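Re: that chain you flagged

S.,

Sorry for the slow reply, it's been a week of failed gels. I finally had a moment to sit down with the sequence you sent. For the record, here it is as I used it:
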Amino acid sequence: MKINPFELERWLPSHTCKYDLAGSVVKSLKLNEVVESLPFDLELMHGPTNGSVELRKGVSRLYKNTDEDNVLIVNGTTEGNFLAMSYLLEPGDEVVLGGVPTYLQGVGLAEALGAKVKFFNLAENEGFKADINSISKIVSKKTKVIILISPNNPTGSRFSPKEIRTICDIAKEVGAYVLADEVLRYTELDGKPSLSPAEIYEKGISTGSLSKIGLAGLRTGWVVTNKELAKQLWTQKDYTTLANPILSDHIAEIALQEANFRKIVQRAIRICNENLKIFAEWVEENGHFLKWVSPSAGAVAFPKYDLTIDSVSLCKKLMKEESILLTPGDYFLAPKHLRIQYGGVDKKPLRIVLERLSVFLSNL
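Prediction finished late last night. Pasting the structure tokens below so you have them in one place:
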């Protein structure tokens, strides 16, 4: 199995810059904001390779109709996606991925596993609304998995509960799984978590983590699905990372306690809503060459620009001249767009970066 380089993930860590707005996480928490002290007598041995019971119970509380046996703890959402796809896909299968613009991990994995990838689009002129009719047309008896990025990365748009149910119904007709990468779940700006396929469909799979709400350094992620598949993916994990970092598990257990988790989520949503006001004013001021759809989830926005330069060249030039790192829209199959992490910094540096961006873009 040979996987092509993941351009986005090669771009993100490869630069040293003064201002980094290229990621997709809410401003990180400090350790002392999550735990008051650490148990220094904790034995530095790995725990259960599927995750401790308490940690799995903590995750199961985030989903309806599940318990700890529906949960597998993994090292970040990306490992969850890898385990699910490597178990489910065989050469000749088809994968439906959407909507575009989208995070492209699933493409590299599917193609490396010998599957054919089909895409459905998000209509930008309709607020990045999913084209449900196009999904029905491209799903076939060969479709093994429908992959959703829910809420969407990079646009911050959301699938409605009705759309999630319809997609699950479409999948059921051909016996396909619905794999929802829900790493942005619980960053919804209205505080209402998106409906998960794992809650309503026997072949629904949710992958998620604590990363986007300010705890990316823990690398604590999960897969939530039916109990039999959770066991099978646990077997897959024996051949990847095997176990989870014991310190991360300990901190994640505390973070997922109901009162603590509620505070962490409220903090993330507050930061995003406050910073989004600053970003919206900036877009309006530069409306002669920028258009956007205001996000409904996540710490990122995805404006479209009206300039002749492609997004990769623009971001390289911006990095070289201004030491500002953004993410090219081309890495999400969306030319002439930029992913900008408005929720990952404090208000003052955000305003500084946006002011410098205005001058840079005007000069272009």
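What I noticed first: The chain has a mean pLDDT of 97.

Talk soon,
D.
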